Amino acid sequence: MNPTDERPPDFFPRPVSESQSEMNEFVLPNDANPLGALLGGRLMHWIDMAGALAAHRHSRHYVVTASIDHLDFWTPVHVGDLVVLRSSVNRVFSTSMEVGVTVWVENYLKDEQRHVSSAYLTFVAVDAAGNHLKVAPVIPETEEQKRRYEDAGRRREIHQAERKRRQRNSR
Ligand SMILES: CC(C)(COP(=O)(O)OP(=O)(O)OC[C@H]1O[C@@H](n2cnc3c(N)ncnc32)[C@H](O)[C@@H]1OP(=O)(O)O)[C@@H](O)C(=O)NCCC(=O)NCCS
Protein backbone atom coordinates (compact mmCIF):
# COMPACT_ATOMS: atom_id res chain seq x y z
CA MET A 1 0.00 0.00 0.00
CA ASN A 2 1.31 3.45 -0.93
CA PRO A 3 1.46 5.50 2.34
CA THR A 4 0.64 8.72 0.42
CA ASP A 5 -2.51 7.22 -1.12
CA GLU A 6 -5.48 8.85 0.61
CA ARG A 7 -8.11 6.37 -0.57
CA PRO A 8 -9.78 4.44 2.28
CA PRO A 9 -8.36 0.90 2.69
CA ASP A 10 -11.62 -0.64 1.45
CA PHE A 11 -11.26 1.21 -1.87
CA PHE A 12 -8.05 -0.36 -3.16
CA PRO A 13 -8.50 -2.34 -6.41
CA ARG A 14 -8.70 -6.08 -5.78
CA PRO A 15 -8.23 -9.00 -8.18
CA VAL A 16 -11.26 -11.11 -9.13
CA SER A 17 -9.69 -14.04 -7.29
CA GLU A 18 -10.29 -12.33 -3.92
CA SER A 19 -14.05 -12.51 -4.46
CA GLN A 20 -14.16 -16.08 -5.79
CA SER A 21 -16.49 -18.06 -3.55
CA GLU A 22 -18.00 -21.50 -3.40
CA MET A 23 -21.17 -22.63 -1.66
CA ASN A 24 -22.27 -26.26 -1.38
CA GLU A 25 -25.79 -27.51 -0.65
CA PHE A 26 -27.20 -31.03 -0.33
CA VAL A 27 -30.72 -31.18 -1.76
CA LEU A 28 -33.07 -32.25 1.05
CA PRO A 29 -36.75 -33.28 0.73
CA ASN A 30 -37.86 -29.82 1.86
CA ASP A 31 -36.03 -28.29 -1.13
CA ALA A 32 -37.92 -30.41 -3.66
CA ASN A 33 -41.29 -30.83 -5.34
CA PRO A 34 -43.39 -34.01 -4.81
CA LEU A 35 -41.39 -35.72 -7.61
CA GLY A 36 -38.15 -35.15 -5.72
CA ALA A 37 -36.82 -32.47 -8.10
CA LEU A 38 -35.15 -29.33 -6.71
CA LEU A 39 -37.53 -26.34 -6.65
CA GLY A 40 -36.47 -23.55 -9.02
CA GLY A 41 -37.20 -20.97 -6.32
CA ARG A 42 -34.87 -22.71 -3.86
CA LEU A 43 -32.08 -22.67 -6.44
CA MET A 44 -32.71 -18.98 -7.08
CA HIS A 45 -32.34 -18.34 -3.35
CA TRP A 46 -29.03 -20.22 -3.27
CA ILE A 47 -27.83 -18.29 -6.37
CA ASP A 48 -28.66 -15.01 -4.60
CA MET A 49 -26.73 -16.13 -1.49
CA ALA A 50 -23.72 -17.33 -3.51
CA GLY A 51 -23.69 -14.05 -5.45
CA ALA A 52 -23.89 -12.01 -2.26
CA LEU A 53 -20.89 -13.92 -0.86
CA ALA A 54 -18.69 -12.70 -3.72
CA ALA A 55 -20.13 -9.17 -3.58
CA HIS A 56 -19.48 -8.91 0.18
CA ARG A 57 -15.96 -10.27 -0.16
CA HIS A 58 -15.07 -7.83 -2.91
CA SER A 59 -16.80 -4.68 -1.62
CA ARG A 60 -16.34 -5.29 2.12
CA HIS A 61 -19.73 -3.61 2.58
CA TYR A 62 -23.36 -4.63 3.03
CA VAL A 63 -25.00 -5.23 -0.34
CA VAL A 64 -28.54 -5.44 -1.72
CA THR A 65 -29.58 -7.34 -4.82
CA ALA A 66 -30.62 -4.86 -7.53
CA SER A 67 -31.34 -7.42 -10.26
CA ILE A 68 -30.99 -11.03 -11.32
CA ASP A 69 -30.64 -11.92 -14.98
CA HIS A 70 -32.87 -14.51 -16.55
CA LEU A 71 -32.19 -18.10 -15.48
CA ASP A 72 -32.15 -21.32 -17.47
CA PHE A 73 -32.20 -24.68 -15.70
CA TRP A 74 -30.41 -27.09 -18.03
CA THR A 75 -30.03 -30.19 -15.86
CA PRO A 76 -32.55 -31.59 -13.35
CA VAL A 77 -31.37 -31.83 -9.75
CA HIS A 78 -32.83 -34.32 -7.27
CA VAL A 79 -33.06 -35.00 -3.54
CA GLY A 80 -29.68 -36.26 -2.32
CA ASP A 81 -27.69 -34.43 -5.02
CA LEU A 82 -24.82 -32.13 -4.10
CA VAL A 83 -25.19 -28.66 -5.62
CA VAL A 84 -22.06 -26.54 -6.03
CA LEU A 85 -22.39 -22.78 -6.61
CA ARG A 86 -19.35 -20.74 -7.68
CA SER A 87 -19.37 -16.97 -7.78
CA SER A 88 -17.06 -14.03 -8.44
CA VAL A 89 -17.28 -10.34 -9.22
CA ASN A 90 -17.16 -9.79 -13.00
CA ARG A 91 -17.05 -6.00 -13.00
CA VAL A 92 -17.53 -3.01 -10.74
CA PHE A 93 -19.27 0.10 -12.06
CA SER A 94 -19.64 2.78 -9.37
CA THR A 95 -21.82 1.66 -6.46
CA SER A 96 -22.91 -1.51 -8.24
CA MET A 97 -21.12 -4.67 -9.31
CA GLU A 98 -22.01 -7.57 -11.56
CA VAL A 99 -21.45 -11.02 -10.05
CA GLY A 100 -21.49 -14.24 -12.08
CA VAL A 101 -22.76 -17.44 -10.48
CA THR A 102 -22.41 -20.88 -12.04
CA VAL A 103 -24.24 -23.88 -10.62
CA TRP A 104 -23.11 -27.50 -10.89
CA VAL A 105 -24.52 -30.79 -9.69
CA GLU A 106 -21.77 -33.06 -8.43
CA ASN A 107 -21.85 -36.82 -8.58
CA TYR A 108 -19.35 -37.47 -5.80
CA LEU A 109 -19.44 -41.24 -6.44
CA LYS A 110 -18.24 -40.77 -10.04
CA ASP A 111 -16.30 -37.54 -9.46
CA GLU A 112 -18.34 -35.78 -12.17
CA GLN A 113 -19.98 -32.36 -12.32
CA ARG A 114 -22.76 -31.27 -14.69
CA HIS A 115 -23.64 -27.64 -15.42
CA VAL A 116 -27.09 -26.79 -14.03
CA SER A 117 -27.41 -23.04 -14.45
CA SER A 118 -25.62 -19.70 -14.80
CA ALA A 119 -26.78 -16.29 -13.69
CA TYR A 120 -25.61 -12.69 -13.55
CA LEU A 121 -26.65 -10.60 -10.58
CA THR A 122 -26.16 -6.92 -9.83
CA PHE A 123 -25.53 -5.91 -6.22
CA VAL A 124 -25.38 -2.37 -4.85
CA ALA A 125 -23.15 -1.61 -1.85
CA VAL A 126 -24.90 0.19 1.00
CA ASP A 127 -24.11 1.36 4.52
CA ALA A 128 -26.21 0.50 7.56
CA ALA A 129 -28.56 3.40 6.75
CA GLY A 130 -29.04 2.22 3.17
CA ASN A 131 -26.89 4.93 1.53
CA HIS A 132 -25.12 3.78 -1.61
CA LEU A 133 -21.34 3.41 -1.37
CA LYS A 134 -18.67 3.42 -4.04
CA VAL A 135 -17.08 0.01 -4.60
CA ALA A 136 -13.37 -0.61 -5.15
CA PRO A 137 -12.44 -1.49 -8.76
CA VAL A 138 -11.94 -5.16 -9.62
CA ILE A 139 -8.90 -6.34 -11.59
CA PRO A 140 -9.53 -9.11 -14.12
CA GLU A 141 -6.34 -11.15 -14.49
CA THR A 142 -7.03 -14.24 -16.61
CA GLU A 143 -8.32 -14.25 -20.22
CA GLU A 144 -11.65 -15.65 -18.95
CA GLN A 145 -11.95 -12.90 -16.32
CA LYS A 146 -11.15 -10.25 -18.95
CA ARG A 147 -13.84 -11.67 -21.26
CA ARG A 148 -16.41 -11.60 -18.42
CA TYR A 149 -15.39 -8.02 -17.58
CA GLU A 150 -16.02 -6.89 -21.19
CA ASP A 151 -19.29 -8.86 -21.42
CA ALA A 152 -20.52 -7.29 -18.15
CA GLY A 153 -20.10 -3.81 -19.72
CA ARG A 154 -22.20 -4.84 -22.73
CA ARG A 155 -24.89 -6.37 -20.46
CA ARG A 156 -25.08 -3.16 -18.42
CA GLU A 157 -25.67 -1.06 -21.55
CA ILE A 158 -28.46 -3.40 -22.67
CA HIS A 159 -30.06 -3.45 -19.19
CA GLN A 160 -29.92 0.32 -18.80
CA ALA A 161 -31.60 0.84 -22.18
CA GLU A 162 -34.29 -1.70 -21.28
CA ARG A 163 -34.89 -0.08 -17.85
CA LYS A 164 -35.34 3.32 -19.48
CA ARG A 165 -37.79 1.83 -21.99
CA ARG A 166 -39.84 0.20 -19.18
CA GLN A 167 -39.85 3.45 -17.16
CA ARG A 168 -41.11 5.40 -20.22
CA ASN A 169 -43.86 2.82 -20.83
CA SER A 170 -45.05 2.82 -17.22
CA ARG A 171 -45.74 6.58 -17.19
C1 LIG B 1 -31.20 -1.37 -6.11
C2 LIG B 1 -31.34 0.00 -5.46
C3 LIG B 1 -30.27 0.14 -4.36
C4 LIG B 1 -31.05 1.05 -6.54
O1 LIG B 1 -31.19 2.30 -5.96
P1 LIG B 1 -31.70 3.59 -6.81
O2 LIG B 1 -31.57 4.78 -5.93
O3 LIG B 1 -33.01 3.26 -7.42
O4 LIG B 1 -30.69 3.54 -7.99
P2 LIG B 1 -29.63 4.57 -8.57
O5 LIG B 1 -30.22 5.09 -9.82
O6 LIG B 1 -29.08 5.52 -7.56
O7 LIG B 1 -28.47 3.53 -8.95
C5 LIG B 1 -27.55 3.00 -8.01
C6 LIG B 1 -26.79 1.90 -8.72
O8 LIG B 1 -27.65 0.77 -8.85
C7 LIG B 1 -27.73 0.39 -10.23
N1 LIG B 1 -29.07 -0.09 -10.45
C8 LIG B 1 -30.22 0.51 -10.08
N2 LIG B 1 -31.27 -0.26 -10.42
C9 LIG B 1 -30.75 -1.37 -11.02
C10 LIG B 1 -31.32 -2.54 -11.60
N3 LIG B 1 -32.63 -2.74 -11.65
N4 LIG B 1 -30.49 -3.46 -12.11
C11 LIG B 1 -29.15 -3.29 -12.08
N5 LIG B 1 -28.55 -2.21 -11.53
C12 LIG B 1 -29.35 -1.27 -11.02
C13 LIG B 1 -27.42 1.66 -11.01
O9 LIG B 1 -26.95 1.36 -12.31
C14 LIG B 1 -26.35 2.28 -10.14
O10 LIG B 1 -25.12 1.63 -10.37
P3 LIG B 1 -23.71 2.48 -10.38
O11 LIG B 1 -23.66 3.34 -9.15
O12 LIG B 1 -22.66 1.42 -10.34
O13 LIG B 1 -23.70 3.27 -11.65
C15 LIG B 1 -32.75 0.27 -4.85
O14 LIG B 1 -33.70 0.25 -5.91
C16 LIG B 1 -33.12 -0.74 -3.81
O15 LIG B 1 -32.73 -0.61 -2.65
N6 LIG B 1 -33.89 -1.77 -4.19
C17 LIG B 1 -34.29 -2.82 -3.29
C18 LIG B 1 -33.17 -3.85 -3.14
C19 LIG B 1 -33.62 -5.04 -2.41
O16 LIG B 1 -34.39 -4.93 -1.47
N7 LIG B 1 -33.16 -6.20 -2.86
C20 LIG B 1 -33.65 -7.47 -2.36
C21 LIG B 1 -33.23 -7.75 -0.99
S1 LIG B 1 -31.49 -7.74 -0.79
In short:
The protein has 2 helices and 7 strands; from the N terminus they run ββαβββββα. With 171 residues, the protein is an alpha+beta fold. Strands 2-4-5-6-3 form a 5-stranded antiparallel beta sheet.
Sheet with most strands: 5 strands, antiparallel
Low-confidence stretches: none
Structural classification: alpha+beta
Radius of gyration: 18 Å
Descriptive notes:
This protein has 171 residues and is of the alpha+beta class. Helices cover 28% and strands 32% of the residues. The chain has two helices and seven strands. The strands form two sheets. The protein has a five-stranded antiparallel beta sheet. Strands 1-7 form a two-stranded parallel sheet. A hairpin with a 3-residue loop joins strand 4 (82-92) and strand 5. The protein is globular. The mean pLDDT is 93. The structure holds coenzyme A.
